[in-house]
Specification:
phosphoprotein, five-stranded parallel beta sheet, DNA-binding, Rossmann fold, 11 helices, two-stranded antiparallel sheet, alpha/beta
Length: about 240
């Protein structure tokens, strides 16, 4: 059975400790998984209500309308966000809130990308209820928690460089991130202009800004850099 393990690192003191977490937002597009997780959290932490969202866009809208939750549990793959993109987007809205990535994908490179993007922890969907609750409690108390057997130094010999690259991508605006996603899908400027309902000249201006922020000279280089940190794709 896969269990979660604590890394040696401990983050700066969180805004709340585990016993003070009262409002949680689950972002997952699978209704059964979302409902089961919400029920588990209500029972285990004595919560009366757990907020849920089925997409990244819905989560961001909810945060703006209802305020920040005390903690977030984020599915790796959503209809409108794959890979570490979801964490990058939520970090803009919630700079001090612990975000836990949950997934069946336990590839070391994906875990490294999520942690570099600002996740408090990364846990498997196959965890037992006891292990899940224990992992969340430790994360909300300030620990970084990753799956047992995960070794950052083995997953990525140049982890610091990738973390810096992730910070550069995180500086992109939401519109620039949308354009970069379409570039990674192989879309031409005219297609991007049509899909986002903006002028082609505006697309070119955004692309220039994107290249400058991520220090890329060509579109192909931008795609390679995005893929290297698993920004949009999980596999």
């Amino acid at each position: 059975m896969i269990t979660a393990a604590t890394t040696a690192r401990v983050s700066n003191p969180p805004r709340l400790c585990a016993d003070q977490v009262r409002e949680i937002l689950i972002v997952d597009d699978h209704p059964l998984m979302c409902d089961a997780l919400a029920l588990t959290l209500k029972i285990s932490f004595g919560l009366k209500h757990v907020r849920t969202a089925r997409s990244l866009a819905s989560a961001i809208e909810q945060i703006k309308a209802q305020g920040a939750p005390d903690a977030v549990i984020l599915d790796l793959n959503l209809p409108d966000a794959r890979g570490s993109e979801g964490i990058v987007a939520l970090r803009r809205q919630l700079p001090d809130v612990p975000i836990t990535m949950i997934s069946a994908d336990l590839e070391a490179a994906m875990i490294s990308a999520a942690m570099a993007a600002g996740a408090q922890g990364y846990i498997s969907k196959s965890l037992s209820r006891e292990a899940l609750v224990d992992s969340l409690r430790r994360m909300w108390d300030g620990e970084h928690v990753t799956p047992e057997g995960y070794r950052p130094e083995e997953a990525d010999a140049d982890e610091q460089a990738k973390a810096e690259l992730m910070r550069r991508f995180a500086s992109l605006t939401p519109q620039q991130m949308r354009i970069l996603r379409l570039i990674c899908q192989g879309k031409a400027n005219k297609e991007i202009s049509y899909e986002l309902s903006i002028a082609e000249a505006t697309v070119k201006t955004h692309i220039t800004a994107i290249m400058s922020k991520i220090n890329a000279r060509r579109r192909t280089q931008a795609v390679l850099l995005a893929n290297s940190i698993r920004l949009f794709e999980a596999g």
